[in-house]
Design brief:
The protein has 180 residues and is α/β, with parallel strands linked by helices. The protein is built from 4 helices and 10 strands. It is globular and about 35 Å long.
């Protein structure tokens, strides 16, 4: 990545997950997350985040959930997509470049803070290409039984090093470094 010497924040895959390994339920439903997660659950994560790189599917799910009080200030929002929407969203920058360039762009906008990667497909691509420093998982106390899995088939082996686990109410937060 260009300018890597001037960037201090980490690239972090950030996920809420059911105990049976789903990050979204059937139909990409994510409303179950807000039964447990609020901006108050782990404010230090939000404070450490300067920008978010989001997949288009996750962006669309977020738009459908806009009526829920799911405010999260993770800094500048970038959506990686092949097809930007016809009507721009003033709160989002749509990127149609390659993945590495998208990560570099969003990371630069993070201003030395962490870049969060949201979205199953974008996160898997970043992991496959060695662009991720950490994985942060909020394990929620429920079984969904079906939906979008934490990692897609074919991701391949990624070795992790656990370095933190904390409990906040019913939520267990697990942190892992990605071994390079």
């Amino acid at each position: 990545m260009s300018d890597e010497g001037t960037v201090t924040g980490k690239v972090v895959v950030n996920r809420a997950m059911s105990l049976d390994g789903f990050i979204a339920g059937p139909g990409h439903a994510m409303d179950w997350i807000f039964e447990y997660m609020t901006a108050d659950t782990v404010p230090e994560v939000m404070t450490a985040t300067g920008a978010m790189l989001i997949g288009r599917g996750t962006y669309e799910v977020g738009k459908r959930m806009a009526d829920q009080d799911a405010s999260y200030d993770g800094g500048a929002q970038f959506v990686l997509t092949h097809n930007p929407p016809a009507e721009p969203d003033p709160a989002v920058t749509f990127l149609t470049c390659g993945l590495e360039q998208a990560v570099a762009t969003a990371r630069s906008a993070a201003g030395g803070k962490n870049l969060e990667i949201l979205g199953a497909d974008v996160a898997a691509q970043c992991l496959q290409r060695g662009l991720v420093d950490e994985i942060l998982v909020y394990v929620l106390p429920l079984l969904l039984g079906d939906g979008v899995r934490f990692s897609p088939p074919g991701l391949g082996r990624i070795d992790l090093e656990p370095f933190s686990n904390t409990q906040s109410g019913a939520v267990t937060m697990l942190r892992f470094r990605v071994r390079k």
